[in-house]
Amino acid sequence: xxxxxxxxxxxxxxxxxxxxxxxxxxxxxxxxxxxxxxxxxxxxxxxxxxxxxxxxxxxxxxxxxxxxxxxxxxxxxxxxxxxxxxxxxxxxxxxxxxxxxxxxxxxxxxxxxxxxxxxxxxxxxxxxxxxxxxxxxxxxxxxxxxxxxxxxxxxxxxxxxxxxxxxxxxxxxxxxxxxxxxxxxxxxxxxxxxxxxxxxxxxxxxxxxxxxxxxxxxxxxxxxxxxxxxxxxxxxxxxxxxxxxxxxxxxxxxxxxxxxxxxxxxxxxxxxxxxxxxxxxxxxxxxxxxxxxxxxxxxxxxxxxxxxxxxxxxxxxxxxxxxxxxxxxxxxxxxxxxx
Length: 339
Known about the structure:
The structure is a single chain. The protein has 11 helices and 14 strands. The chain has 339 residues and is of the alpha/beta class. Strands 7-8-9-10-11-12-13-14 form an 8-stranded parallel barrel, surrounded by 6 helices. Helix 3 (108-121) runs parallel beside helix 4 (145-158). The longest helix has 14 residues, at 108-121.
């Protein structure tokens, strides 16, 4: 249920209403916009009388929300959320956030070199995998703790916030102590509910990738798990879904960008690298994602992709990334954005 307050509602009036609602055991999320304030009610709203609530002088409208995700819904939070990451970087709003870096961290020289290159080209954040979920148990699994230290050191040198994937809740203290700026929940862990609850208890920004076969509603419900624990700093990432098509690694669902924008206030970015698995497709689909309304991109960049330890076929070179950024600077103003 949501309660829309009248534009002229006073703080005393809204505080009195909130006190009555909380006395019934309900939680309230307050969303203040330029012209109106919305109260989002979470819990057993059947204990409330809609007509009685409508009778309060400060109340303009009372609406029941049908979607199962509440805090992530557009109804609860009509304005687009802008998530602050740190170092002056945010996701959402007018400015596009481009995240770039290698699939996996290999050596200090590799990650620091890539960090320097993508920073020079205009990337907003540095990505890199220290803990790698792989389909085969015999594939490279990442450098783990050592790789995480390398990533954080490279991010500091390049003055870029860092994004990296967490695999299990027991690693959370390490991620927090190493000053990881954005904790990524990968596609395979999108419905790892214990992990979602754990990151929800922190105040760290969480990048939530869509599961391989997840519906939009299931994806937003996973975001709801994080937000229900108190952490509303959630960024969604479309990275392709599994279909019958085998030509590409996955099928990039750009319609998800528009669907999420209608259903939720959370920012959404697109990862064309994992979606296609093909280097030559990345730049064109990145531009298509921006044209479709994505708030940012996640691009895999490697200084020597042909010899990469992981996912080299979908990684572009620093020179290709610089060309992509130049083209995005031309495209962004056309769709009302900027780099």
